[in-house]
Structures are given as structure tokens and as C-alpha cells.
Amino acid sequence: MIIEHIAMYVSDLEAARDFFTGYLGGVSNSGYHNKTTGFRSYFISFEGGARIELMNRADVADSDKSADRMGYSHIAFSVGSKKKVDELTESLRLAGFTVRSGPRTTGDGYYESCIVAFEDNLIEITE
Q1: How far apart are CA 100 and CA 87, in angstroms?
Q2: Which residues contact 75 (CB under 8 A, 6 or more apart)?
Q3: Cα(20)–Cα(54) distance, integer angstroms
Q4: How many CB atoms lie within 10 A of CB 13?
Q5: From CA 103, how far away is CA 83, in angstroms rounded?
Q6: CB 26 within 8 A of CB 46
Q7: What pTM, to 2 d.p., does this model score?
Q8: What domains are defined for the chain?
Q9: How far apart are CA 33 and CA 46, in angstroms?
Q10: Ordered per-residue pLDDT tens for the chain, 127 residues
């Protein structure tokens, strides 16, 4: 069994799409818009088959995204090496994103950093 995709509601659909395509190498479809409900979405595809569905609808409320809460915590992307973790982390920092942790080797042996990305969503970058 594989995970087919992960879906997330976002306030700024285009900014979220640009983050995943511009920094993480995702490829976006042309989008979907249901004019009756106002629902809009993009599917972002990544090397290896993983996909994220970014969704937007005016009546969806934004909730607290504190890092230490129950439920989903972050999405992790493997970039292939420690050097690439360092480079992408620095690129994101220079672009104005907050580096929450790292780059570092964690107690369980992962080399990673964690970025506070668009709309306070956490993105983990691993080797």
C-alpha cells in the first residue's frame, strides 16, 4: 500500500503552489475550480510519485497551527544529502522563512532542518 496524496487547505493557493514548485521541485497541474462551491485546488507531484493536493474554499476557517499540538505536525522532504539540506535551508532562510531547527543530526540519526513555511505550516528537510 502507498499513500496516494496528502491534502491541505490553504488561504493563499498560489503562494502555497509556488512554495512547493519553486523550492521543493514539485510539478503542478493546471488546477481545478468548482464554480458552484467555490472550491479550488492544485495537485503538486514530486519525484517518486508523492503528491500534495492544495485546496481552497472561502468558508474553511483557519485554525491554530502551533507546532506542539495533536494531529499532523509537518511534511518531510528528502533532498538526498546533508549538503542539499544545508543549501535548501539557507536558501529558505534568505527568502525570509523562519528556520525552526537545524540543520542538525537528531537523536534518532536523521540529518534535518525544519522550516516554518507558508501560513505557519512546518516543512522538514531531510537528507
Answers
A1: 16
A2: 6, 52, 121, 122, 123, 124
A3: 10
A4: 17
A5: 10
A6: yes
A7: 0.91
A8: 6-56 (3.10.180.10), 75-126 (3.10.180.10)
A9: 22
A10: 888 999 999 999 999 999 999 999 999 999 999 999 999 999 999 998 999 999 999 998 877 767 676 777 899 999 999 999 999 999 999 999 999 999 999 999 999 999 999 999 999 999 9
Nearest CA-CA partner of 52 in 24, 71, 73: 24
- Identity of the amino acid at 118: F
